[in-house]
Design goal:
about 120 residues, 434 Repressor (Amino-terminal Domain), about 70% helix, about 0% strand
């Protein structure tokens, strides 16, 4: 199973537990059997998009909720707000524009390293 599918499965379980729902309760919301929810949470089956859409509407969530990784979120919260905003803005760019931003950062890091500052990648 792909890491994205694993992440979705983990977040479905977190959502269910956060709302103190059983797998049977969640199955009722989705219109499936409890066993299907078990398979989704364990990652044995990929979750159909229509079920994610149902969960988003039922719980008032953005679809991106299912792709959130707590470890990444915790790391991001350690960055200053300006860096978080920059990462968000870069994530909205086209891939070739993202590469240009990374190249520019590499250029600045190399320039700083030549001037005697420490290497930010170490």
């Amino acid at each position: 199973m792909s890491s994205i599918s694993q992440l979705v499965a983990k977040n479905i379980r977190k959502l269910r537990e956060k709302h103190s729902l059983s797998q049977k309760d969640l199955a009722y919301i989705l219109g499936v059997k409890q066993q299907a929810v078990y398979y989704y949470e364990k990652g044995y089956r990929s979750v159909p998009f229509k079920f994610l859409d149902t969960l988003c509407h039922h719980f008032g969530l953005a679809p991106s909720f299912f792709l959130q990784d707590e470890e990444v979120k915790d790391i991001m919260e350690d960055f200053p707000l300006k860096i978080q905003q920059a990462i968000y803005k870069v994530s909205k760019l086209k891939p070739e524009q993202q590469n240009q931003v990374v190249n520019f950062i590499d250029f600045l890091a190399h320039k700083n390293n030549k001037n005697g500052t420490t290497n930010p990648y170490k």
